[in-house]
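look at this one:
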Amino acid sequence: MTLVDYPGKVAAILFTGACDFRCPFCQNASLVLDPSSEPEIPEEEIFDYLKKRKGMLEGVVVTGGEPTVHSDLLEYMGRIKALGYSVKLDTNGYRPDVLKKAVNGGYADYVAMDIKNSLGKYAETAGVKNLFTPLIEESISFLKEGHVPYEFRTTVVHELHSDEDFEKIGKMCEGCDRFYLQTFSDKGDIIKKGLTAPSPEDMERYIKILRKYIRNVLLRDR
C-alpha cells in the first residue's frame, strides 16, 4: 500500500520486472537486471488482494522496471479497471505507442513519466547506447496535450545533472501540468555504485530554473 505514489489516492503498487533502460541510479536493480531473482506474486493472489480491499484502496500504481515492455500490460490494466480501481502508469516514455494505447483506450487514469535528463545526456543517464530521443519527445508532447492527468519527474543525481541540463529540461517540458524533482538516495539496490545526492542548495536552484518554464514544480521526498 502507498500513500505517496498516486497523488490524492490510497493505492496499491505493483512492480513489474524487466526494463529497456539501465539507469545507473536505478533503485530497483534486481528487477531490471535479473527479474527472476525476485519473488513472483501469483496473479490470483494479486487479484484476490484487490477484490478484498475494494473500498479501502482507491487506486493501483503499475510501475517497474518498465511496465510498457510487457505485451500483456493493457490486458492486465483492464482487469484492474474492471474491479473499479483507478490506475496510474509509471513509465520512462520510450514506448509512446504503448503509452498512447493505454491512455486513449481508457486503461490509464494518470501517468507519471520519468524525464531522465536533457536530451544530449539522455543516453548516458538512461544507460543505453544509441538511444533514440525522438521517442521521448513524442511521449512528452502526447502527455502535454492533456488527454489524462499526468506528471513529469526527475531523480536528481549530483554526477549526472547540472544547471544547464535543467534549463534544457524546462524548455522541453514547458507548460506541463506538474513537475516533481526527487533527490537521489543510494538505498543499496543500485545499478552503479559511487553516485551521490545533490546538495539542498542545488535542488533549490534546479527548482528555480524549472519554474521559469513550468508553474508547478515540487520537491518529492522518497
Summary: The chain has a mean pLDDT of 96.
